[in-house]
Structure formats: structure tokens, C-alpha cells
Amino acid sequence: MQTPFLLGPRLYFRPVERDDAPRLAAFVNHPDVRRNLLVHRPMNTAQEVSFVDALTASQRDVLFAIVLRDGDRMIGTCGLHDMDFRSRRATFGMLIGEPSEWHKGYGSETTRMVLDYGFGTLNLNRIDLQVLEHNVAGIRAYEKAGFRHEGVLRQHHYVDGAYVDTLMMGILRSEWKPLPA
Ligand SMILES: CC(C)(COP(=O)(O)OP(=O)(O)OC[C@H]1O[C@@H](n2cnc3c(N)ncnc32)[C@H](O)[C@@H]1OP(=O)(O)O)[C@@H](O)C(=O)NCCC(=O)NCCS
């Protein structure tokens, strides 16, 4: 393992490095990935370096690389964003950037690990997110981790030729169930 920060059953989180930028660009440009992330312009490596630098410097963001413990390969990123330390809330984001690694439970494990970090380490009181209505795997992973549906932004985005709703979801500290140690 390379600079592990947080260990899960099959994954670990580590800092994102500038050297990860080419891989991040490959993740976010993939058509199946970007349609869930609202990326509508090509992203190059230089933009990803700027992204890593900006989030690393920001006190309101935490960004992790998601790495498979078996094989030590980065498969995505996740983080907490727009952190408000007075209201003790943050917004969760994640991507598993290789579609061949989808549907193996990694999104669910990532969600649980980020909640453990947000509530257990940062002492947040609320974590929320927005997800497009067609992102069935994401919605299911969030529901299983304890997120509740809090609202719908109707026809909020235009994706692949149609307007889609955005679902707002959130979880409170009192609803959080930590991963078993
Ligand atoms: C969303 C994402 C993180 C999900 O990751 P994943 O590793 O595939 O998720 P999991 O394997 O943990 O699956 C989560 C649940 O969704 C279910 N699921 C997956 N695809 C499904 C589908 N097409 N229909 C119904 N259920 C589905 C899984 O069965 C699982 O539920 P279960 O444990 O009850 O069986 C991943 O698809 C991704 O990164 N997509 C691109 C970026 C993105 O969408 N980020 C989130 C933006 S809000």
C-alpha cells in the first residue's frame, strides 16, 4: 500500500497526487462516467493537475484516491466538499472511474468509508449529495449507507438529449451506522 490514510475491507484511501492526473483525466472523460458527473467538455491532464492542487489547498475540501487493496490500483476518487464547520455539514462526491470495476460493491464500501471519516473523524453533523435520477447504482449505494431522499430538483440538468431530475439526499450523524471495526 502506498501512503494509506483510511483502510476499508477491500479498499483503502490515500492522498491524490499530481502524478495521478492522467488517470483522473481518463476517468472523467469516459462517456459512461461523465454522463453521471455532468462533465460536458473534454478534460486534459493539466486541468486535472489544477483540480488536484486546488482541492489539496482548500480547507473546505478533502479528496481521496480510492485504491484496491488487492493489486494496489487506483480505481477512483471520492471526497467531502463545501465543508461548513459552523453548521458541521459537507457534500459527498465519488467516482469509480473504470466501468469494468462497477457493480462489485466498491461504490457502497466507499460511501460507508467516507461517512465514517466525515462523522467519526471530522465530527460533521450532516452529509448531503445530489445525484441524477438515472444513476441507479449511486442511489442504491447511498440508500444502503443510510442516506434519505430529501427532495427533487425537476428537470435540473440536460443530459444526452433529455432533461433529467436531480435527487437531493442527506444523512445526519444520528442516522449513521459505522462500518464494523
Ligand atoms: C455510482 C458508482 C460510484 C456506483 O459504484 P459501484 O461500485 O458500481 O456500486 P456498487 O457495486 O456498490 O452497487 C451499488 C448498488 O447498486 C446496485 N446496482 C448497480 N447497478 C444497478 C442497476 N443498473 N440497476 C439496479 N441496481 C444496480 C447494486 O446491485 C448495488 O446494490 P446491492 O448491494 O443492493 O446489490 C459508480 O457507478 C460510478 O462511479 N459511476 C460514475 C460516477 C458517478 O456516478 N458518481 C456518483 C455521482 S452522484
UniProtKB/TrEMBL annotation:
It holds the Pfam family Acetyltransf_3. It comes from the Bacteria. Residues 11-170 form the N-acetyltransferase domain. InterPro entries: Acyl_CoA_acyltransferase, GNAT_dom. This is GNAT family protein.
